[in-house]
Design brief:
The chain is α/β, with parallel strands linked by helices. The protein contains eight helices and 18 strands. It has one domain: Metallo-beta-lactamase, Chain A (4-Layer Sandwich), CATH 3.60.15.
C-alpha cells in the first residue's frame, strides 16, 4: 500500500532532497590539561556531551575553569554525563567545582570507594553530595551508555571485567607469553571504570587508571576488547599500568598520553606505547621532565612547560577517520579511514 504524505511533509521531503547532504560534523574529543589528572570532554555534533573525570579541586579553580572554557568553546552550556573512573583526587576532585559552574545531568561511577581514612572519605562524600543533585548510573562491565550517537561500552568497573569478548574481539593473544604479574592493587585504581567508546566506525579506549594485572586479564589469554583507533594511555603513562600484552593487542593507530610534566610519562610506559604494532603517532599533553628521549617530538606535545594548559583535540568522524590537533601550535594531522 502506498503511503500518502500530507502536503507539508511532502514539501519538507522535497526541500531536503534538494539541499546538499548535511555536513558530517565531527565528534570533538578534548583532552584537557589538568596537570597530571584526567579530564576528557566529548562534544557531539548533535549537542550532547560527556566528560570523563574532572581533574583536581583547588588551584584557584584551575581545572574546573579549563573544563568550562573547553565546554563553552564547543558550544556547550551543560554536561549531560560525567563519568568518574575512580575516586582519586586527580579524577574526581574537580567534579564539585565544575558543578558550581556548569549544570551536570547524570553522574556515572563504579559505586562506593574502597579506600578508608579521613581524606578519601571526605573526597568521596563531597562527590556524593554533588551527585545527589542529578541522576546516577552505576557502571557495570558489559553494559552500555548511549550519549547521542556515541556508544560507551563499559569493560571494567569496581574491580570486575567483561567476561565475554566484544563484537569482533576474542582472538587468542600470543603476546601473553612471558607475562609477569605485579603485586595485587587494593586501591581505587584497580576499580577504574574502563570504556570502549565508539562513534560510527571510530573506536577509542579509556581505562582510567586501571593497573597492570587487571589490564592483563582484559587481554589474556584472549583479547576481549579488540582493536582501536585511539588509545588514551592508561594511568597517565605510569609504569604500573600499560601492560604490553594489552597495549600491543589494541593495535592503536594513535595514542594520546594525558601525563603531567612530573607525573606519568615514564620511559617504560612510553616505550611500550611507542613500540605498539601499527602505531602511527604518539601525542602528549606534557613534555615529561624525566622522560628524556622518551618524549614525542615537540610538535606533538601540547605543553612544553608546567603552567600553560593547552589541550589536544581530536575531531572524529563516523567513517573512522579523525584529525588530531595540538592547540599550542595548531599542528594538525589527519588519519584517513581504514
Amino acid at each position: 500500500m502506498r503511503r500518502i504524505l500530507p502536503p507539508l511533509a511532502l514539501a519538507c521531503l522535497l526541500l531536503s532532497a534538494a539541499l546538499p547532504a548535511q555536513v558530517d560534523r565531527p565528534l570533538g574529543i578534548h583532552f584537557i590539561d589538568v596537570e597530571g589528572g584526567q579530564a576528557t570532554l566529548f562534544a557531539l555534533p548533535s549537542g550532547e556531551s560527556m566528560l570523563v573525570d574532572a581533574g583536581w579541586a583547588g588551584f584557584d579553580g584551575r581545572d574546573a575553569g579549563r573544563i568550562e572554557a573547553a565546554a563553552k568553546k564547543a558550544g556547550l552550556s551543560r554536561i549531560d554525563d560525567v563519568v568518574v573512573t575512580h575516586f582519586h583526587a586527580d579524577h574526581v576532585g574537580g567534579v564539585a567545582p565544575l558543578a558550581a559552574r556548569l549544570p551536570i545531568r547524570t553522574f556515572v561511577d563504579h559505586g562506593e570507594t574502597v579506600e578508608t581514612g579521613a581524606q578519601p572519605a571526605a573526597l568521596y562524600q563531597t562527590y556524593v553530595d554533588v551527585r545527589a543533585k542529578g541522576s546516577h548510573v552505576l557502571a557495570r562491565p558489559g553494559e552500555t551508555l548511549k550519549v547521542g550517537e556515541m556508544e560507551v561500552r563499559f569493560v571494567s568497573a569496581a574491580g570486575d571485567l567483561i567476561k565475554s569478548p566484544l563484537s569482533g574481539a576474542g582472538a587468542p593473544n600470543a603476546l601473553c607469553a612471558g607475562y609477569t604479574p605485579k603485586d595485587p592493587d587494593p586501591t581505587e585504581n584497580a576499580r577504574s571504570v574502563g570504556m570502549l567508546i565508539t562513534y560510527g566506525r571510530f573506536r577509542m579506549i579509556d581505562l582510567g587508571d586501571l593497573t597492570w594485572n587487571k589490564e592483563h586479564d582484559l587481554a589474556c589469554p584472549n583479547n576481549l576488547v579488540g582493536t582501536v583507533d585511539l588509545y588514551l594511555t592508561t594511568h597517565h603513562g605510569m609504569n604500573i599500568s600499560g601492560v604490553p600484552a594489552l597495549v600491543h593487542a589494541l593495535h592503536p593507530r594513535v595514542a594520546v598520553m594525558n601525563n603531567g610534566a612530573r607525573k606519568g610519562g615514564t620511559p617504560e610506559a612510553w616505550q611500550t606505547v611507542h613500540d605498539s604494532p601499527g602505531l602511527e603517532d604518539l601525542w602528549q599533553l606534557h613534555k615529561a621532565v624525566a622522560g628524556g628521549e622518551h618524549n614525542a617530538p615537540d610538535a606533538r606535545i601540547a605543553n612544553l612547560d608546567e603552567t600553560t594548559g593547552y589541550e589536544i583535540t581530536v575531531n572524529a568522524r563516523r567513517d573512522g577517520s579523525f584529525e588530531v590537533v595540538n592547540t599550542r601550535t595548531d599542528q594538525r594531522k589527519r588519519y584517513d579511514k581504514k
